[in-house]
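Hi R.,

As promised, here are both runs. First protein below:
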Amino acid sequence: ILQSTKSLDNNIACGAMAAFSFIILSIKLGQNHELIFLIHGVTFALLTGLGVSKCFDFFRVEVNKDDNDYQNALIATLTNIKPILCIIFCVLILKILNFEIDSNGINAHLHSIIQTALTDNHYSLIPVLLILFLRSISKFMGINADFLFSFSTRAQLVNLNRALKFAHPVAAVHPTAYSTLYSCFAHLGGDGMLLALIIVVLIIGKNQHLKRLLTWSFIPTFFNFSEPVMVGFPIMYMPIYLIPFIMSPLVTTVIAYPFLKYNIVPAPVYPVPNGTPGLLKAFIATGGNIPTLLLALLCLVVSCFIYLPFVKAEMRLINLEHAKIRSSFKR
């Protein structure tokens, strides 16, 4: 006689261990022994959850349906011990490896190599475009690689000292530094110039759900917090938006580069705090220069035209899906 069986659900334990693993892997001790929470990106969180779930699936057991709840609960408790111990062991190994990397300065050494090769010694257009391309790819794939792309601190200090010396941000020593081009002309609304996407959808979009979503996302995006759009729209992992997401910052950098290179507009040299509206960063960082503000507006308009055909394509796909759903209901 075959006994009927069922899979023992470990959803609560699996979810708890996924959260535990993500938190442990995302924290580190700072120089003053303070706890720092590192943001690795959505992909890291998804991979952590996937790894934990696969571990629980590997140790999954079958129980008899006829057994009482107390007996099944006891089996579940004993069964969960194996994946929990396995996950704790793997997390400890990963933390030890990460500690070795940090203590030996591998991350800092890698950052130094890239910074020296692409920014400190070269302020030409090609290295800047290469950095922007790599940054856009990593953001689109949900990977936070900001520790590799936080460049040009030296260039910022040199430009600021010169501006303070002459009391005017003219003829900066490094006007085309990566940080200047990226933060003021290629980061309007966050990575991928997402403020342009919101504007296009709100103007031509006919899908009320998307318009409502982006209306609520407009304010954080205006202040350069693009995560609601990246995850909620979504942009991340969406092939239809890969090209404009990468192309927009590259094109706007190419537009802004000659204006700064030949001092047509003053280079943004004054420090601007995080949370400043992206559209106003260049204006504030130049001490209120109107032509620089107009250049940032031009970059935003160009980005809107880059996103326009892709937004139209997605709207057509949404309309086709809605038409199929309506036709299926009529049948």
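And here is the second one, sequence first, then its structure tokens:
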Amino acid sequence: MTALVFLDPDFSAGRVADAATAQLSVLDQGVTRGDGIFESALYANGVVRKLDAHLARLRVSASTSDLLIPHEEAWRAAIATAVAEFDAATPCEEAVVKLVATRGTEGTDHGTSWVMVSAAPELGRRQRESGVSVIFLDRGYDSKVAERAPWLLMGAKTLSYAVNMAALRHAKKMGADDVIFVSSDGIVLEGPTSTVLIAHRDGDTKRLITPTLETGILPGTTQGAIFTAAREAGWELGYGPLTPQNLMDAEGVWLVSSVRLLTPVNSIDGTAIARDGQLHAELTAMVDAIQ
């Protein structure tokens, strides 16, 4: 079951709709051009995790895309309604809360916005435990493109995910589970749906590193929450730039995202990656504590 609630000025708590029937115009630019933005949050233990961070990133994506979206209070009200609808029909341990805003039908002065709540994929939960095999893929542009080409909307979470999905299909054809993108000048970027983390240990010093945002990657809400917890726990933090060899030499590599959470990387391009069990356990505890 999927709970669906549209943000509608005539309905203060959002307009409940049937997700099993047609709701969008075929002329909506989110459909015809992928012209829109979204966020995906995890709903668990009665809480939509990191909601403030997701709403903040939604605003940034809207600003980057020159897209007018409803105010935050309308989103919060629609989310509350959607979660209540989902809980009443299909209570489960974890669910995905997806926020979507499109530019709407061409020629109109308003977009289309909605919230969906559906059960979290079982595969993602399994991969937290089993880990994933990944391959490096060239993303086709250098690490400076975000500076000189802002119209590419680097760092915005847009609906245009065709390339990301194609990369994942390619990985599966190659016998892998996932992808880590690398720039044409050899800098590690991100996964199609995740942020990259690596860890090092030097005696009692533990260091956590993620790729630099200056490459135009999406700022990860889960990565940000982990960094906050790690800093409080005394870890050192770093922001790249990272090369593929940095990942191969790390004591642990993870793909992190709001729904799949902390997923260890078992191998890259067929080469096994080390995993420090204690570091993984500490990071897992930090992620479990995120609200």
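A quick note on the second one: The longest helix spans residues 72-89. Let me know what you think.

Best,
J.
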